[in-house]
Amino acid sequence: MNGRAVVRFALVALASAAGPLFFYVRAWRVDALEGVARKEARAADRDRQLRALAVTAEKLPEFKAEVAALEEKLAILERIWPPEPRLEGFSGRLREVCGEEGLEVLETRALLIGKDTAPLDLRVAGTRAAFLSFLERLPRLARLNRVERIQMERREGARFEFSVRIVAFHGKD
Hints:
The protein has three helices and four strands. It is α+β, with helices and mostly antiparallel strands. The protein has a four-stranded antiparallel beta sheet with strand order 1-2-4-3. A hairpin with a 2-residue loop joins strand 3 and strand 4. The longest helix has about 80 residues. The radius of gyration is 41 Å and the shape is elongated.
Protein backbone atom coordinates (compact mmCIF):
# COMPACT_ATOMS: atom_id res chain seq x y z
CA MET A 1 0.00 0.00 0.00
CA ASN A 2 1.34 3.30 -0.81
CA GLY A 3 1.36 6.31 1.52
CA ARG A 4 -1.41 8.13 -0.21
CA ALA A 5 -3.80 5.23 0.08
CA VAL A 6 -3.06 4.99 3.80
CA VAL A 7 -3.76 8.71 4.26
CA ARG A 8 -7.01 8.42 2.30
CA PHE A 9 -8.02 5.40 4.35
CA ALA A 10 -7.23 7.24 7.58
CA LEU A 11 -9.25 10.28 6.51
CA VAL A 12 -12.25 8.15 5.48
CA ALA A 13 -12.08 6.21 8.76
CA LEU A 14 -11.82 9.43 10.73
CA ALA A 15 -14.75 11.00 8.86
CA SER A 16 -16.95 7.93 9.31
CA ALA A 17 -16.17 7.81 13.04
CA ALA A 18 -16.52 11.58 13.56
CA GLY A 19 -19.88 11.88 11.69
CA PRO A 20 -22.07 10.15 14.32
CA LEU A 21 -20.06 11.81 17.07
CA PHE A 22 -20.75 15.22 15.47
CA PHE A 23 -24.51 14.55 15.30
CA TYR A 24 -24.55 13.23 18.90
CA VAL A 25 -22.74 16.32 20.20
CA ARG A 26 -24.99 18.58 18.11
CA ALA A 27 -28.17 16.89 19.42
CA TRP A 28 -26.91 17.13 23.00
CA ARG A 29 -26.16 20.82 22.48
CA VAL A 30 -29.63 21.47 20.98
CA ASP A 31 -31.26 19.70 23.97
CA ALA A 32 -29.22 21.82 26.32
CA LEU A 33 -30.23 25.02 24.48
CA GLU A 34 -33.92 24.00 24.57
CA GLY A 35 -33.62 23.35 28.31
CA VAL A 36 -32.18 26.82 28.80
CA ALA A 37 -35.01 28.32 26.70
CA ARG A 38 -37.61 26.48 28.82
CA LYS A 39 -36.00 27.76 32.02
CA GLU A 40 -35.99 31.31 30.66
CA ALA A 41 -39.67 31.00 29.67
CA ARG A 42 -40.59 29.77 33.17
CA ALA A 43 -38.64 32.62 34.73
CA ALA A 44 -40.41 35.14 32.48
CA ASP A 45 -43.78 33.61 33.42
CA ARG A 46 -42.95 33.88 37.13
CA ASP A 47 -41.94 37.51 36.60
CA ARG A 48 -45.30 38.24 34.91
CA GLN A 49 -47.15 36.59 37.79
CA LEU A 50 -45.17 38.57 40.36
CA ARG A 51 -45.92 41.82 38.52
CA ALA A 52 -49.64 40.93 38.45
CA LEU A 53 -49.58 40.20 42.20
CA ALA A 54 -47.82 43.51 42.85
CA VAL A 55 -50.51 45.38 40.89
CA THR A 56 -53.23 43.56 42.86
CA ALA A 57 -51.47 44.37 46.13
CA GLU A 58 -51.34 48.04 45.14
CA LYS A 59 -55.12 48.03 44.46
CA LEU A 60 -56.02 46.27 47.73
CA PRO A 61 -56.65 49.49 49.71
CA GLU A 62 -58.96 50.70 46.91
CA PHE A 63 -60.89 47.40 47.03
CA LYS A 64 -61.22 47.62 50.81
CA ALA A 65 -62.56 51.18 50.56
CA GLU A 66 -65.04 50.10 47.89
CA VAL A 67 -66.23 47.18 50.04
CA ALA A 68 -66.74 49.52 53.00
CA ALA A 69 -68.76 51.94 50.84
CA LEU A 70 -70.91 49.12 49.49
CA GLU A 71 -71.55 47.80 53.01
CA GLU A 72 -72.72 51.28 54.06
CA LYS A 73 -75.10 51.42 51.08
CA LEU A 74 -76.40 47.95 51.94
CA ALA A 75 -77.10 49.01 55.52
CA ILE A 76 -79.09 52.01 54.24
CA LEU A 77 -81.06 49.88 51.78
CA GLU A 78 -81.83 47.28 54.45
CA ARG A 79 -83.41 50.03 56.58
CA ILE A 80 -85.53 51.25 53.62
CA TRP A 81 -86.49 47.83 52.18
CA PRO A 82 -89.92 46.57 53.20
CA PRO A 83 -90.01 43.69 55.65
CA GLU A 84 -90.07 40.10 54.52
CA PRO A 85 -93.57 38.92 53.69
CA ARG A 86 -95.29 37.46 56.69
CA LEU A 87 -97.17 34.76 54.89
CA GLU A 88 -96.48 31.89 57.28
CA GLY A 89 -99.97 32.03 58.78
CA PHE A 90 -101.61 32.53 55.41
CA SER A 91 -99.66 29.75 53.68
CA GLY A 92 -100.33 27.48 56.66
CA ARG A 93 -104.05 28.18 56.32
CA LEU A 94 -103.83 27.44 52.57
CA ARG A 95 -102.20 24.09 53.36
CA GLU A 96 -105.00 23.30 55.84
CA VAL A 97 -107.69 24.07 53.26
CA CYS A 98 -105.86 21.95 50.66
CA GLY A 99 -105.69 19.04 53.10
CA GLU A 100 -109.37 19.39 53.97
CA GLU A 101 -110.28 19.32 50.27
CA GLY A 102 -108.09 16.26 49.56
CA LEU A 103 -105.37 18.08 47.62
CA GLU A 104 -101.70 17.17 47.97
CA VAL A 105 -99.51 20.27 48.31
CA LEU A 106 -96.46 19.89 46.09
CA GLU A 107 -94.88 23.33 46.54
CA THR A 108 -95.53 26.75 48.03
CA ARG A 109 -93.20 29.63 47.25
CA ALA A 110 -93.46 33.27 48.30
CA LEU A 111 -92.22 35.66 45.61
CA LEU A 112 -90.85 39.20 45.74
CA ILE A 113 -93.29 41.41 47.54
CA GLY A 114 -94.89 44.67 46.59
CA LYS A 115 -95.69 47.49 48.98
CA ASP A 116 -98.83 45.88 50.44
CA THR A 117 -99.15 42.50 48.76
CA ALA A 118 -97.07 39.41 48.24
CA PRO A 119 -97.64 36.75 45.57
CA LEU A 120 -97.54 33.11 46.61
CA ASP A 121 -97.14 30.33 44.04
CA LEU A 122 -98.98 27.15 45.01
CA ARG A 123 -98.72 23.77 43.26
CA VAL A 124 -101.16 21.05 44.28
CA ALA A 125 -102.22 17.66 42.96
CA GLY A 126 -105.68 16.15 43.13
CA THR A 127 -109.00 15.86 41.34
CA ARG A 128 -110.75 18.68 39.50
CA ALA A 129 -113.67 18.55 41.92
CA ALA A 130 -111.34 18.95 44.92
CA PHE A 131 -109.54 21.88 43.26
CA LEU A 132 -112.85 23.62 42.40
CA SER A 133 -113.97 23.19 45.99
CA PHE A 134 -110.64 24.71 47.12
CA LEU A 135 -111.18 27.70 44.81
CA GLU A 136 -114.68 28.19 46.24
CA ARG A 137 -113.24 28.38 49.76
CA LEU A 138 -110.44 30.83 48.88
CA PRO A 139 -112.53 34.04 49.12
CA ARG A 140 -113.30 33.23 52.76
CA LEU A 141 -109.60 33.42 53.69
CA ALA A 142 -108.46 36.58 55.44
CA ARG A 143 -105.78 38.64 53.63
CA LEU A 144 -106.64 37.27 50.16
CA ASN A 145 -106.26 39.94 47.49
CA ARG A 146 -106.69 38.07 44.20
CA VAL A 147 -106.08 34.78 42.41
CA GLU A 148 -103.99 34.84 39.23
CA ARG A 149 -102.70 32.42 36.61
CA ILE A 150 -104.42 29.11 37.19
CA GLN A 151 -102.90 26.24 35.21
CA MET A 152 -103.92 22.59 35.05
CA GLU A 153 -101.90 19.61 33.87
CA ARG A 154 -103.00 15.95 33.74
CA ARG A 155 -100.89 13.61 35.85
CA GLU A 156 -102.48 10.17 35.90
CA GLY A 157 -106.05 8.97 35.56
CA ALA A 158 -108.41 11.45 37.19
CA ARG A 159 -105.59 13.24 39.05
CA PHE A 160 -104.29 16.59 37.88
CA GLU A 161 -101.58 19.01 38.88
CA PHE A 162 -102.71 22.59 39.43
CA SER A 163 -100.60 25.73 39.64
CA VAL A 164 -102.09 28.92 40.98
CA ARG A 165 -100.67 32.29 42.02
CA ILE A 166 -102.44 33.75 45.02
CA VAL A 167 -101.75 37.37 45.94
CA ALA A 168 -102.27 38.15 49.61
CA PHE A 169 -101.87 41.19 51.82
CA HIS A 170 -98.81 40.67 53.97
CA GLY A 171 -98.61 41.57 57.61
CA LYS A 172 -100.17 40.21 60.73
CA ASP A 173 -103.07 37.76 60.61
